[in-house]
Amino acid sequence: MSAGGEEEGVRAAPDNFHAHGQSAAAERRLARAVLLDRLCRSQRWDVVVIGGGATGLGCAVDAAARGYSTLLVEACDFAKGTSSRATKLIHGGVRYLARGDLALVREALAERSRLLANAPHLVHPLRFVVPAYHWHDRARFGLGLGFYDLLAGIHGIERSRILDAAATVAALPGLNPVGLKGGIAYWDAQFDDARLAIALMRTVFDLGGLALNYLPVDDLIVEGGRVRGIIARDAESDEVFRIAARVVINATGVWADAVRRFERPAARALVRPSQGAHVVVDRSFLSGDTALLVPETPDGRVLFVIPWQGKVLIGTTDTARPDLPLEPDALPGEVDFILATAARYLVPAPTRADVHSIFVGLRPLVGEDERTATHRLSREHCIEVSPGGLVTITGGKWTTYRRMAEETIDQACAVGMLPRRPAATAALRLHGAPPGFSGDCYGSDRAVVDLLPGATRRMQDGLTLTEAEVRHAARFELARGVEDVLARRHRALFLDAARAAAAAPAVATVLAEELGHDAQWCADEVARFRALAIRYGAPAPAGECS
């Protein structure tokens, strides 16, 4: 689409962001009105990234770290889609090893090591045990995981080792002991996906860039056959912005083809979406600190049973999905499949009545042959440069987000004729990273959080969320509504949908105070969130906003 002249009600946007004094990260708050004003004060950005998930945020951090003026826009909230719905693992991928994707496994293991160093408040080592119910399985799994150690090399955490039956049951309280021959222990890493996304967003600001949620892109600006920017709209006010850029990066995950077709309506699809469902149950079903890996499910996948934030997460499935809902539900049979598979290994086995939350994520897999099952498609990424210079990055996984971003910005430099600058993220510590390991997702920001009102007041019995953390989410983490807080700044919706729904009125009240909203906004937010919580497994609650 050719860019025309100035339209009524449309604001122009940016000159070099680094020309304006201090960044918003240095201001008292990341106030939306201030950020939108900064957007309008620039005439052109070096790099504009569309998409606020793992890949888009990674691209924005990489570009800003190289000194390019960088803007990221997200249609909803950061990590609203796939990037908050992962299995919470930073790993090389044991099943990718079995499939022969050695290069992907080696790269992912190196990136795992970098994330452990660069985000120690959000990523930590986790021991897994693979149970063996046949003697030959113990030898087979041991050999495979020994090769996993070999591929990790200097990036390894600890070496795998073979366990006897007694040591396997001791590591996995709740494991079915009948017929157990032993197991193999190995190490990978676990993380909080949505909180890592928020840390990346904060890092963009720390580096002088700008990131805005709830700013969907309605079209691309194309002049002389080249992509020259985007047309974005503020979802809260409907104000429209024409934003010029040297290069535009499409990092919208499963929605990448829709953005590509702004430029080329007939563009062939790059993405084959699939979905993965997860269920969350009480910690009593696997009470230790070790995760269980089921190595072979009936559909040829693996199943993880993982301790996570005081609960146990079980998943995942891999089911082709032709549509792209923003809030996907589990398809018929997915939850039953997860529970039935878990029942072969856990005693007692969780039932549907034990499930506190069900969440589903869409994967942006890359593949052209529709006859290939989605679980057999590679998790490698694809970078495409269109005839008009739009750079699209899709595929991949959270573990390799940084490497994907580095390769994407290298491409963007060529397309946007930007001065070549080396990547600077391999050793870049992300926002909030403390000097050493921390079990607190706020890391070095904890002192800032606890200076806010309500540091000792819990928003709901059974949740760790405090009033101060809600205020911090509004002031410094760009939270705009109840869902932003209870689904992503805190993980209540994913851990216990019913408790999250019960917390909604108190959270809405604090947000309304922070953001300047009235009682009607508060009531609407509570109703909207409670309707969402029902889809995650919460019973329909009653009550009004307090």
TrEMBL record:
The keyword GTP-binding does not apply. Keywords: FAD, Flavoprotein, Glycerol metabolism, Oxidoreductase. Its cofactor is FAD. The keyword Flavoprotein applies. Residues 46-401 form the FAD dependent oxidoreductase domain. It holds the Pfam family DAO. Residues 455-520 form the Alpha-glycerophosphate oxidase C-terminal domain. It comes from the Bacteria. InterPro entries: DAO_C, DAO_C_sf, FAD-dep_OxRdtase, FAD/NAD-bd_sf, G3P_DH_FAD-dep. Belongs to the FAD-dependent glycerol-3-phosphate dehydrogenase family. This is FAD-dependent oxidoreductase. The lineage of its organism: Bacteria, Pseudomonadati, Pseudomonadota, Betaproteobacteria, Rhodocyclales.
